[in-house]
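Both lines are given unchanged directly below:

***
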Amino acid sequence: MDLGLKDCTAFITGGAGTLGFAMAQRFVQEGCKVVVCDTNQEAIDAACRELAAMGGQALGVRADVTSKDEVGNAVEQVVNRWSKVDVLVNNAGFARDSYLTRMREEDWHAVLDVTLMGAFHCSRAVLPLMMENRFGRIVNIASRAHLGNPGQTNYSAAKAGLIGFTRSLALESGKFGITANAVAPGVISTPRMQKRPDYEELTQRAKSNTPVARLGDPADVAATVAFLASRLAGFTTGETVHVSGGRYA
């Protein structure tokens, strides 16, 4: 199926991580130019080399998404190279789990700042470009945790906030031909997760609670992101798509 993404420019935050890189690979397969935005220069360079080996065009930019100036500089580099940003994937984020009574204040702020301030800075930086072109796709990576998880008050709050951000942005930007949607992954098998000593226990528990009885793969998330970024999804906005195998509660 042709998603109509050929020659689009896709900007992915957290693009050198497992999920972000899976998205980058999928966009390259669809003929996109890909911007790998991350904070780890070594990982950025490695990701861009792999994308180039696939025959893709990739630009690596180092930026802390909580910094307005660094985000602005990153977007400027993209404009100088390819003149536009068609797709923004706000993927940067992480968990720092702890029960609320034990949670450090800095861990609360760190999780919310990267998820929410990052989406704010990046979206605001690319929206004028999208508005001028009368086309744009913003996909925000939330989590099934927006429904609430014990030990994740910071992460759940951040992801729930990102969904509210998405809905409001969809209402503001639709008249410019821009859509905004969220993707909420469930339990996704990543190399980091596979190194956990309780990985097998987690796997069995997740399978028993999931109608599609398996763990998710990064490619599952990437496929959904690619569809929402495509021209086929032009009448879909403000939505949250759960890539969780049917697991919600």
Remarks:
- The CA atoms of residues 181 and 239 lie 5 Å apart.
- Strands lie at 9-13, 33-38, 57-62, 87-90, 136-141, 178-185, 240-243.
